[in-house]
Amino acid sequence: MAELAGRPGTWGGLSLRSCQFAFAAACICVMSSAPGFANYTAFCYLIASMGLQALWSLGLACFDCYALILRKDLQQAFLLSLFVVGDWVTAVLSFAAACSAGGVVVLFERDVHFCSRDPQLPCGRFEVATALAFLSCAFCATSAIVMFCLLASL
Amino acid sequence: MAELAGRPGTWGGLSLRSCQFAFAAACICVMSSAPGFANYTAFCYLIASMGLQALWSLGLACFDCYALILRKDLQQAFLLSLFVVGDWVTAVLSFAAACSAGGVVVLFERDVHFCSRDPQLPCGRFEVATALAFLSCAFCATSAIVMFCLLASL
User: Fold this and answer.
1) How confident is the prediction for chain B on average, in pLDDT?
2) Rounded distance between C-alpha atoms, residue B99 and residue A39, angstroms
3) How does this protein assemble (chains A, B) (predicted)?
4) Backbone angles phi, psi at A33, to 5 degrees
5) Phi, psi (5° rounding) for residue B19?
6) Phi, psi at residue B8, to the nearest 5°?
7) I need a labelling partner for B154 at 20 to 30 A (CA). Which of A109, B2, B32, B92 fits?
8) What is the per-residue pLDDT for B32?
9) Tens digit of each residue's pLDDT (9 = 90 or more) over B37-56
10) Range of the domain at A116
């Protein structure tokens, strides 16, 4: 279990955090470049939760770099408990935000046909941002499961 | 860990499953009594995932009753693995459905003001059904965590 890919303080862990950060940051950029997104609560919540996810994963990526450069071991019970709680909280919050944004995008596209009625509405960007949020969630869920397994094996 | 409240084959487990089933069934009843719900994909998906949740929790409640009456022990690795996978799948699906319905309800209520513009739209029922779905999810997440801890402690 101690050799699990993606554990903190390794190149696997660093690449997992970097992907999480990259997708969360891309989601924020795409959504904030869509005019009028601030009129919809679900999209504002998506930006807020992706902001939290980006900050958390950037912090942990820096921590991984520090551990890699100074060859420190991050697999201590206290640190792993902190990572597990943080990862699960950000994973649940960002999954909720991605699902609620997904619900609104499907409503716009298929149910009330806002996208075909109003060509000014940047539906394409809303869709891309939601897809990026789901990708970021998937990486966050992977690291949350890795952390939980590592903590359980201590 | 073997004395964890809510483990399968006990009165705690049975009451957890009964609450899950009751809230999922109540959600389906409230949502299907709301005229026009079928025009919205998020609400149809909520009904489908709550149907799955109700079936799964009813099945496990029957299994708990059987174990209580015949005094069987359900804490075997194979059964617990099955419960863990089923619980996590239903929990994630129903949380996604509840969040997407929540996103649409907030949009109707606060962003596009459909509820105040169209008094025919049963927004109150949509809200109650979404709240019931979140309650059902909370019970499902509780049993998923209990199952996972039991499996990890075997």
Assistant:
1) 90
2) 19
3) Homodimer and heterodimers.
4) -85, -5
5) -65, -45
6) -65, 150
7) B92
8) 94
9) 899 999 999 999 999 999 99
10) 11-153
Residues B27 and B37: their CA atoms lie apart, in Å, by: 13
Over chain A (154 residues), what is each successive 10-residue block's mean pLDDT?
74 91 96 92 95 94 89 81 91 95 93 88 93 94 87 79
Chosen for mutation from B99, B121, B147 (greatest number of chain A CBs closer than 10 Å) is B99
Tokens coding B125: 């029922």
**Does A148 map to a domain?**
yes
Examine the pLDDT at B153 and tell me if it is beyond 90: no
pTM: 0.91
Contact at CB, A107 and B152, closer than 8 angstroms? no
A118 within a domain of the structure (yes/no): yes
The pLDDT-based confidence of B2 (bands split at 50, 70, 90) is low
CB B30 within 8 A of CB B24: no
d(CA A36, CA A53): 23
- Asked, for residue B6, whether it belongs to a domain, the answer is no
In angstroms, rounded to a whole number, what is the distance separating the alpha carbons of residues B16 and B90? 15
Contact B99 A104 (CB under 8 A): no
Chain-chain contact of B99 with A95 (C-beta, under 8 angstroms): yes
Question: Helix (H) and strand (E) counts for chain A?
Answer: 5, 0
**Number of domains into which chain B is organized:** 1
A3 compared with B110, residue with greater pLDDT: B110
Residue B144 backbone phi and psi in degrees, to 5: -60, -40
Structure token digits, residue A118: 């109003």
Extract the tokens encoding A67: 């551990």
Q: Is residue A144 part of a domain?
A: yes
